[in-house]
Amino acid sequence: MGVPGGHAQQNILHYLSRLHSKGSDDWLPTHGAAMRSVCPDFCAPIIRIEGMLAGPTYGDDKPTHRRQFYWPSRYTPDTDQEKHMNHPHAPVRLLAHESLPGITEALGNLDGWLMRDGAHWLVTRHEGTITIGKVDAHPSRVLADRATWTDPDPYTSGTYCSPLPEGALAISSRRAVTVYEADGTVRWEHRHRDRQHSPGASGACTPDPAGRVLLATMAGPLGADGLSTGDICRALDLATGEVLAEHLLPSFSAAYAFQQFPDARPEVLLTASMGQDGTLCLLVTRTDSGLGVRATGTATEACVGVGPEGALVIQDIGGRYLTRTQDGAAEVIIEAGDVLPDERVFVGCTPGFVDDKRILVVTAEEQWAEEGTHLLLDAHTLRPLAELTYPRTPGVTAVPLGDGTWLVRDDETVQRWTTA
């Protein structure tokens, strides 16, 4: 009846589980403690199926960690915190996988994952080549197609790429915004002031949802005192590069990123990360009279996921809380300590909407962890719904696609998953 080669703790739990399955409650424990280092594969599933485990399990690298566990027939959680820290487990199913060299570095870049024209895109740089991959609308594949360009400046940081209509590409660099045709020829170049005294600053660009202008952020003009008056956003004619409108931004010397919304809203999201001066989240709209720029509620973080009807999920850069904001709805804020086990925080930079009802986030014990727990949350309340169960422990990056699937990186391979 025991597990061949198993240790005593495994076989005791196996025995108790067998008794419970035969209808006997007399031998069930009221509570107990298990060293997480010895039971990640066998004991933990038994505890989680027959009872309740207050926290995750780990491998042999954490031999001193312990967690309490309880059986529901003998114990009922008496605090909201305990209830929320014991989430149901949801198995997942691998749908597709595809090699994409450079994806590891890409998902740490501001343009590594983009929402453009109702589709998701992955942007990688590898051995002097820029690859733009469009995520397939059908879940049986990762990429529908990919296009490559020679990187015009492979040794300079701070460049930002965006796919354009008809297979073109826009690149924002420290000195210019350039649009390339699908065959690699230059359509036009718009030069601007170099941020030579702001090494951490970088511009960004995106076509507007109508596909007629290119929105681009860049360093603004100098004032009479020789100091910058702030960064600017310009609307450039997508065909000619002509400046059609300009708006002085409330941010300065920032690292920028654009995201469109999945439902073709006229607004686009612009995040402006200013280091110790914080982050601004702005909504930019091209209008007949110029450019409209407004703040998105009280959001002040760079890790933002875009959802339907203008919904945003924003993750604190330190992983301490999540915020959901949307025009016409009250902001929802949830702290990590209220829904996660002790010392765990939200990690990664890609919180987002799996579909209209679920948000996917990643948690770990520290921000620089290489492995994490993937957690589904209610898309409106942010309350935990389930912890995803993979064949082996996943990394800390998960890119939700809004269609019930999401992407996970495994070395230089991109995998597409869904719930089983």
UniProtKB/TrEMBL annotation:
<protein>
    <recommendedName>
        <fullName>PQQ-binding-like beta-propeller repeat protein</fullName>
    </recommendedName>
</protein>
<dbReference type="InterPro" id="IPR011047">
    <property type="entry name" value="Quinoprotein_ADH-like_sf"/>
</dbReference>
<dbReference type="InterPro" id="IPR015943">
    <property type="entry name" value="WD40/YVTN_repeat-like_dom_sf"/>
</dbReference>
